[in-house]
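Quick question about two entries, pasted in order.
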Amino acid sequence: MINWLKWPKRRETAGDEVASDRAIVHFTDAALGKMLEVLANKGGRSQLSVRVTAEEGPSGSVNYGMALEESSAAGDTVIETNGVTVLVDPRSLPHVNRCTVDFLNSPLQPGFKVEPPPPEYDAAAHTHAAAVATSRPQLDLSNPVIRTVQSVIDEQVNPGIASHGGRATLIDVKDKVVYVELGGGCQGCAMASVTLKQGVERMIKQAVPQIREVIDTTDHAGGTNPYFESAKGGASPFHEAAKG
């Protein structure tokens, strides 16, 4: 949760900002209502802006921050959204553009939360996924990236999903995208997407941070029990239960 309610900062180097009609920050209804309330209490939204920052952490993770400010800094992108002015510095912009700001009214830990932008739909990557699913190109294990990804699958991913009768096979690595096929108990499983994102993709990105996406090439409809309900088939071995 973001602890961002700080007194507005004064900046000496204001101006030269970049007004943007293309960069977007989404606010949920709850976040927008709370944001407008906070701005009104601090002196009005015409006087204050909301700065959203993003800092890359270990293993490709991103840490977000928010603060109220009275003016922009040189190079800022200025985003106007539903009466709220958002400021974003150049380094943060790739992680902030298309992100979603939510407000969680939890009695234990209320506050704003920034969800990272969803991956861009890469038409070329998904076209390649359909092709490699049938062609099965020969893996070049002399390539250090491919060799490392294969090692992660062999030594971390498959031992984890073996208890559920599943397995993952590396099909290809191209343009920082990894293509895998899930088999055994993972083929047709309703929790396959969770296994892919919380397990396979997370482990691969930890070992090879430059990987931007992992795509599942599996023919899930061709499984023995295609798309069975998770209640019948069990949870993903990598599923992270919500903490209450």
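Here is the second entry:
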Amino acid sequence: MNNRKIILHPCGYFDSKVLDILRDDLEQEFNCDSEITACNIDISSYYNPARRQYDANGIMQNISLNAGDKVKVLGIMRVDIFVPILTFIFGQAELSGSTGVASLYRLRNELYGLEINNDLLIERFRKVVLHEAGHLHGLIHCHNQVCIMRSSTYVEDLDQKERAFCLSCRSKLNSLL
């Protein structure tokens, strides 16, 4: 590995197996060290009662205090997050920046009247986390239908994507690393 690092910052409870999977994904795809550090922020101050959601921009600002030159911090959470111009988001990250967030709230089947499927939930979350980490490393949205960097508005979009970068995005990522 090298001196770059991605920190997973769980805000709320996550099973250690899930955290290990996410950490392994990040290390493999971005050829860097990663670690998991407990979230020490109170995200309740970012709750918007009118929307019944949490402000992703505010959370990212707070999380950014833990980032540095060679460190990227990705806050992960189980709450419904938003940015002012969208109804909801799965995640958000600063392009070539140091901070991002990802939430599994809207990835749950039961939110859409479907049967609970924890394996599918984790697969979707892995895709969101890798997608946001891709933005942190300078990748923009891709038009390849199965690329992890394709924009996802709906969970069905996530389900159609692979958990991998297309050849073009992989090449760009390798040049950026």
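Reply: The two ends are 11 Å apart (CA to CA). Helices lie at 16-30, 56-63, 118-136, 155-160, 167-176. Hope that helps.
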